[in-house]
Predict the structure.
Amino acid sequence: MAAILEKAKEKVKTAVKNTTDKLEGIFTSSDGVDPNAKVINTDDQQKLYDNIMQDYNVFKAARQSVEPLWREEMRFYDGDHWYGLRSPSASRLRPNSVDNIAWAQVESIVGKLSGWDPWPDFQAQEQRDEPKASDLNAYMPYELAQIKFKQKYIHAIRQCIVHGPLVFKTVFDPNVEGGRGMNRFIGRNDIIPVDLGSFFPDPRITDFIYLQEMGAIIINTRKTMEYFQERWPEQGPKVQPDNMAQDVQIFTYPNYGMAQNVFNFTDTTWYPWDASTQTKTAGLIEYWYRGLPKMMTNEDKQLFREMAEEKLMQSKDPSECLAKARGTMEGVHCVYVSTSGVFLEHKSYVYDHGQYPFTARTLFPNGRNVWGKGFMRDMIKPQIMLNKFAEIAVETSAKSGNSAIVYEEGVITKPQTWKEQRSQESAMLPVAQGRMNDWKELQGVNVPETVFKMLNYYQEMLQKIPGQFDSSNGQPNSNVTSGEQAKALIAAASTRLNPVSDLISDALSDVFGQYIELIAQFYTDQRIARVTGRQVSMGRDSLISHVPTTFQKTTDDGQTTEIPVMEEYVPEFDIIVKITAEKPSDMQYWLNLAFNLLPLADPITGLPLIDAEAVQYVIQNGRMESMDIIEKRIQEKSGIMQQFQQVQQQNQQLQAENAGMQQQLSELVSMKQQQEAEDRHFNRGMQSRKMDLEEAKMTNQIMKDQAPILMGGAPSG
């Protein structure tokens, strides 16, 4: 009976648990769940996990010194300029003036740097690769538009201008599905701007130029429980929510690292953040490292062996795949773990190019760490002083408008009425009878001239620090008295941004270099794009080049034989990214430029620089299309025209040959007619001679027949 009762209790518990699981929402608490109730990781996995977390803690500690600076810079960008400067009770009694010129200057720089589309220009280093470079130039703008790179680029540039670091991540996303009909595909490359809060580089390297020499790079991002369970069905369900979001969401937690008993602590409950929304998330750590793999899974070994066999069947060099299968080749690898203690996955040799999938630069390096600084850091102090002097002017003006009153005792019979109605229109204020002259109004103090001078001073400082003056932003400046002076200021502003644009161009060249490497690795199916009226395809087969080599194959008896194979490689291209600090936006400028270029021709090829379609494009869009597109179209038209001229020449040659043949035919006909006439004349002569001969024969015969008669009829002697 007891056993039956125990089974019944277990069934009830199971039914209740199943019902509870079905009714749980996203943020439902899971009290009573013991994540250590079963083995989470194997011994090797746990050892690797412990080493990764040790590196993560070191990397995180090295970055914490700069995080308060980033938070302060972001607060000034957002307009929260009085944070920590006064208590909430004092803030409610003060104007808290904020003239956010720092934000305006940042956006002015971002607008100038993002004016041009950041598309790459590929130039082949070898003549045989020129068709590939041409196809890349036609295909890449379409590809970058598909991944919404322009908006990601603007986000990264804004982060760089405010804080200093410019960080991109170039990866392949296998979950993307796209295409239509016969051109469907799975997976797409992507360029992602890396948030500073999630980026933990090796602190031993002090300049991002040497990023590829780092021992490891760690990325920590917050993911939902559903994400872990879907991507890693075996280990994902073991992941438990944690409370470590403050490690990476450094801008969302404004009080991170600041105790509430600090003197200048300010209440920040107005921030759009609720910690309860993170109760069903955990941190996903990507531990990227270079060198030999720390471990090789059976799946990775089998994958590389199959790839080697497939390459050998196609007469391609399998040496690299075999070395990867043995784990004896250096490369880039990634370990995925959760901050709650679960080892998720180890992927060996993620990318064939063997580099970290990150590209980073620092706007203004400091030589002490990789972070450096941006424009905002030096604008914080002038912005604070500008706000304070603006507040002094406001408060002084307010006091001047509401002056004080002095009066003798008993003059004002109803003081409360005076307080309430004195500043109102048509107010009627009572005074004791006969004592109208016994009260006096004291005039307030005017705003000192020094305050306005200091306001102008700090406004000028906020222009000089980033080099963005009112004239360069299209606004009049009282200090500029001539057009030439305004042009000089605009040119100076552009000069200040030239190093910034060079830095961005250099970074994007590396980004696009990795991007085409990923195209060669993952785009096994041709990707189709329709560009300028033609269809362009791009994929591994159209990008990879080959060179003959030999492979040492070991037979079953231990002997080695040389097999001729083809080695695959991605050709190198010179990648130029055009980033300028100024881009004319006036339609009339582009129209005048188009008309000036229309009659000009290339002195080498003799082809026109632009065509009529380029002028039509300016009229329709207010700007000129890329010169590469115009040149490509002109070359295509020139090729068609050359083919047409060749056809015309061939037609003329055929006509000339036809005329010659007609003449020869006419001569042959004339000769034939002459021959026929001669034949007829000859036949007539022959026939006449034959008739004469017959006539002579007949005459001779007649004479022979008449001879005896004549002889018999003669008289005898």
